[in-house]
Please model this.
Amino acid sequence: MKILILGSDGYIGWPLTLHLLKEGHEVAGIDSYIRRTRVRNCGSDSLTPILSTLDRLTLLRKYPNYIKGYGNLVISLGEYEPFIIRNILRDLKPDTIVHLAEQSSAPWSMISSEKASETQLQNVIGTLHLLWAMKEVCPEAHLVKIGSLGEYGTPNCDIPEGFIKRDCSWRSIRCPMADLPFPKSPNSFYHLSKVHDTHNIIFACSNWNLRSTDIMQGVVFGVKVTDNESESELTRFDYDQYFGTVINRFCAQAIIEYPLTIYGRGDQLRGFLSLSDSIQCLTLAIENPPNKSEYRVFNQFESTRSINGLAKMVVQSAGELGLKVEISHLENPRKEKEIHHYNPAHQKLFDLGYKPTANIYQEIQILLSNLLPYKDRIIKEVILPTTRWI
Amino acid sequence: MKILILGSDGYIGWPLTLHLLKEGHEVAGIDSYIRRTRVRNCGSDSLTPILSTLDRLTLLRKYPNYIKGYGNLVISLGEYEPFIIRNILRDLKPDTIVHLAEQSSAPWSMISSEKASETQLQNVIGTLHLLWAMKEVCPEAHLVKIGSLGEYGTPNCDIPEGFIKRDCSWRSIRCPMADLPFPKSPNSFYHLSKVHDTHNIIFACSNWNLRSTDIMQGVVFGVKVTDNESESELTRFDYDQYFGTVINRFCAQAIIEYPLTIYGRGDQLRGFLSLSDSIQCLTLAIENPPNKSEYRVFNQFESTRSINGLAKMVVQSAGELGLKVEISHLENPRKEKEIHHYNPAHQKLFDLGYKPTANIYQEIQILLSNLLPYKDRIIKEVILPTTRWI
Model:
């Protein structure tokens, strides 16, 4: 299968590119490298000593099934140049396009008007250009789009896998004759950008008969996909207030015995999965494409957990490594429900054969061990939240 | 009340500005005048001989309650300059902001990748900059935002006024503990931009305690708000394939005895209201603001009609003026349901006192008479649709 990865230098894009090459697929990658710049502009850097962009290309070129000539194109999808992605698709004719080329931080999108509009411009306009280019050049290709479980927000009711089914009954609204998208209640301008993408993609599938898998992904954590990964293959690992997601941030804090920073009560519930599970699920989506004109939603996570529960696991696991870690409850910089019902469905990937690699406690143990060699690289100043969402 | 109109040179913005001035409100207006350029770039022009931008400012300045100094600022909300609108709000401190400054044509947004992204950039990023500026400068102000009834699409079920209420019961989804926004199924990149706006505004109200009325407006038609309007007060009137909405286009076709161009079967149902009703409803929304942090939705239309029913009314009404008009069914350039259930609720504006000015047949008669003096200005070449949505 010929696969184009947009955002191939990122936290998920890089290991996915390597994994698909090892699986024997033909893979091309594109990245603007703006994530590297943004993290550095926040005063931080990847905890793992990742290769330079040039060295990564050299590594990829050793795979005979790596499609050269794209990886050194530094393009940004969201600029006023839809013809660039159009020309690439025309030249490459991919079977599958995995779109990971989005600004991926919720807190970063809440810093200012400028950062919020930069996020929505890159994500929404970028995806829009991609959809038009697919329509014009490769309407048969399968778009695998990374959305976020956070698109649903916390609506205090069970969350289906994308749609309100036509067989539901509503008391005050006559039953729809077709499925309707489940209403979204996102909680940051980043999550909103993903909701906007979702609406644009649904329309592109129904109007132009494109096919897409829209992945409502939970919070990903971890740093290695397999045990035998070399240092040169390592993905980036962010732990700062903007780009560090919760378990990764906790584990980075734990290895330097810095108190774990819980925002508010910590009873917030979210869906989580390890990096290796994310790569496994994305591969399942790629290798099992939907039908033409089909828009499907996968809620991609292993299990739901409370922030407090995770923090306790990190403390216990760190203890086994001889580390003494405390928990610190900070005033919540975000406005969010701290006590709520949370039960998103997530059956479709299991139906395709998804088998979690390990349980979440084992994954945390592995992650802590993997991070320990790099503990001297941590910059403490970037951990505490300074951006208030309200 | 101090009111800022964004898009004060437009089809609705101009008569709304005049009406609010006549009602005694303090009014300031801003426009980028890009609508004038876009219509001319499509080879068309307003059927009514509207004043130049300079002459319109001279006319407005005769009102003692017109706030000078803004009307000659040609600004675009969607550019990378959020500080411009921030500075204006800081200076003006409006009680109400009426946001009409969006690209308003669905077919125009479907021409190309460039036009689609220009639409979403102007509308979504423009509104985003406005929301941030309101948060930072005038969080107490009331945002009246023009959305579209087309945001809902045609979901083949009854459509509530914005929300799925918490007292509804779902068979497959546990009942939500709070209202959820009714899911949107828009059918063009223009309508999608309005849905994106809606989601951004809901979040701004819940996160920052802003207040907003989001108006899901039906298709507006007509050219005068009152009988005694002078020619210099006339609003623009578009009848071309891109900016001409359906009744306006039919009436312009009728006065030159051009066959009415129905797209497809003509059994499509939509909500409609006259321009004078639109001005009346917007004034009601402005003069009855919501509470702080409240986000409310008004479905703003007088009645639902089929395209065939409207065409027949125009034929009959034109006949009374001695005009012989036929109906022509064109192959539908859009992909849309042509037979469907359609029943959107629209009670809230009636509860506030909305009284339709006249029935739709009378309104069509008035419109035809108002347009007849300008029939020699019609450019026939811009009427037929050339942009296919699929």
